[in-house]
Amino acid sequence: MSAQNTKQAPDGGWGWAIVVASFMGQLLAYGSPQSVGVLYPEWLNTFQDSKGMTAWVGSLVSGVGLIASPVCSACVVNFGARPVTIFSGVMVSGGLMLSAFAPNVQFLIFSYGIVVGTSIGGFLYATVQNEFIALFGLDGCLLLIGCFALNIIACAGLMRPLHLPAYYLKQRAALAEKTEEKVLEKAPVVEDPIKKNQSVNVLITGETKERKSLVSYVTLVRLVKKKQKEYSEYLHSTAELLQNRVFLATCVSLFAYCLGAYTPLLFLEDLAQTEGLISGISTIPLVSIMSIAAGVGKLLLGVMMDIHWMNSIFLYSFTLLGTGVVLLIIPVTKNYTGLRVISALLGFFSGNWSVIPYVTTKVVGMDRLTEAYGILMFFGGFSIMLGPPVAGWIYDWMHSYDLAFYFSGSFVLLGGAGLFLAAVCCRNNNQEETSTPDTECINDYDKVATVA
């Protein structure tokens, strides 16, 4: 065997335990939010509020999560994955349990939409929540899945860091510095019998303290200026990224996609019940079909990205256009079997989330991937928060889901068409220029996976 194959893993092989813990954490944390469409009809029947207001619960739980992702990343860097995961487990579990005692939709928006906020988790939770509602009611269902979410804390226990996080390193350095200062302060001073020398010692000590105070003030001023410079550079860098036409088109297309694509996840079950296509919720809900198809879509779309002649931006645009067309077909579908097929197609196309980091790399390059991906997630999270409530308000106004899905499908189509045209124009204008060579992308797959 070669030396490369026999090289010991830096974590001693513990990485597989991290993989299992991360998988279970994702399942427990995102299972209920991804299958919120099962809970939505129950909330409507329980609180008798408008569909637009109730839709805020499902939209916030995903939108807030995306917008807060840069903050969570910074917390992991500074404090480590273990304490952040434990805190998240307490928040998710507490939010779910608190939602069981919600007196109205407004309270539910806070407890479920903000406090709590993949594919396998969505599939399992959609079916399990359906059974729990039938056996224990809505409140009992929320209490039980809240108890399940406490297992996230157990998953966090396996997340042993390779190196101490930045926050603890800073604390250790600060503690060592304070200890050194105390030792210097407590050091015995040899008194000179001559009073003149004693006066000199006092003066030197006073000057030393004043010098330390001055140095501390200067250090603080430098730190403030450094942070201001970093923020200024970040804003300037963001402005430069948005001047890239293809990246700007990607941001707009993701905003348009999230504005419409999240709507069926929340409303499709209620649509089937409202139109009389099914009484109650099926044993395998439409949300479960979406989740399984999403897992297949992530796998197949990722494989297609590896084809050497495949243009990743055009493929991503195709998934947006396909989603828009399927959304426009929903209003003319008058049977539950048709909705199942539509759910499978929507789920498959939603697998495009897994290829967004690769597409972003092709547009802005590997060096700016992290920054660009954070901007994209902000656009997506903000749009997810708006889409379902707007669709709900349209239903409250028209008393029909038809216009809501036409609205959603049209926005997704416009986003996909805009990104496709921007990519075509950029390709025609820069035939001889390649911002990110294919060999570079192949060598940096691990970095793309890290961002994903």
UniProtKB/TrEMBL annotation:
Keywords: Membrane, Transmembrane, Transmembrane helix. It comes from the Eukaryota. Coiled coil: none annotated. This is Solute carrier family 16 member 9b. Gene3D superfamilies: MFS general substrate transporter like domains. The keyword Transmembrane helix applies. One of its GO terms (molecular function) is monocarboxylic acid transmembrane transporter activity. It is found in: Membrane. GO terms for cellular component: membrane. InterPro entries: MFS, MFS_trans_sf, Proton-linked_MCT. The chain crosses the membrane at residues 12-33, 53-77, 107-126, 133-159, 246-268, 280-301, 313-332, 339-360, 372-391, 403-424. The keyword DNA damage does not apply. It is a multi-pass membrane protein. Its main location: membrane.
